[in-house]
From TrEMBL:
InterPro entries per UniProt: Emp24-like, GOLD_dom
Full protein name: GOLD domain-containing protein
Organism: Euplotes harpa
Residues that span the membrane, as ranges: 190-211
Signal sequence bounds: 1-16
Pfam families noted in UniProt: EMP24_GP25L
UniProt key word NAD: no
Membrane topology designation: Single-pass type I membrane protein
């Protein structure tokens, strides 16, 4: 069982989806990020800063504003993406000076609290990891059906004239698409499929070990 739990932890860690980076927004300026999400996915968006001049809004694919928060140093929004499509997160600096903030986006098992599930069903550690593995595979399949991607509406410009995107692909603002190489996307797709197969194999192995142990105890 220990090996099963360890394998589950490794696979779920590899497939965890969390994005964290820092960004500067100029005074009286706005910066927006977009994230393509499948339906029924757990999500947590968090903005943290040292200033009281920022506001944050989250809009769903239908243009409905789901969340707004003003002038707080930590703005956190947990939700479930009931509609598949592009979600828009905007940060506005109402102050006169540039402000730095940290953007955090968690999805899937990283954004879900399993404490109620464990208490209600009295799940053991191995059973909980198996549940996470199954949910990870389901979320992965949903995501791969969409054209996933993260985009900026206005990258910051460095003194030398280059765009500061903190290592992320540069946005072609006029076309509003990434200029990221397609080769990278293909590698990511293949890697995701390999991990998906690994998770399914691990889940089947866990089920076999669990049932074997269960019937052994019955004897």
């Amino acid at each position: 069982k220990a090996m099963v739990v360890l394998l589950a932890l490794i696979l779920t860690a590899c497939m965890a989806d969390e994005t964290v980076f820092m960004y500067d927004v100029k005074g009286t300026d706005e910066i927006c990020f977009t994230e393509t999400l499948p339906e029924n996915l757990s999500v947590i968006i968090e903005i943290s800063t040292k200033t009281d001049a920022l506001t944050m809004t989250v809009t769903n694919p239908n243009g409905v504003q789901l969340f707004t928060r003003n002038y707080q140093r930590v703005m956190k929004y947990p939700f479930t993406s009931f509609d598949a499509g592009v979600y828009k997160i905007c940060v506005v600096n109402t102050g006169s000076y540039a402000a730095e903030f940290t953007f955090s986006l968690k999805t899937g098992i990283d954004a879900k609290d399993y404490s109620d599930l464990v208490t209600k069903n009295n799940l053991k550690p191995a059973e909980l990891e198996a549940e996470k593995l199954i949910e990870t595979v389901q979320n992965l399949h949903k995501s791969m059906r969409l054209s996933s991607g993260r985009k900026f509406s206005r990258p910051a410009v460095l003194p030398d004239g280059s765009a500061n995107t903190n290592g992320l692909p540069v946005l072609d603002e006029e076309a509003y698409v990434w200029s990221a190489p397609t080769e990278r996307y293909r590698y990511t797709l293949v890697f995701s499929w390999v991990l998906s197969i690994g998770v399914m194999v691990a889940t089947a192995f866990f089920s076999y070990c669990y049932l074997k142990s269960y019937f052994y105890k019955k004897k």
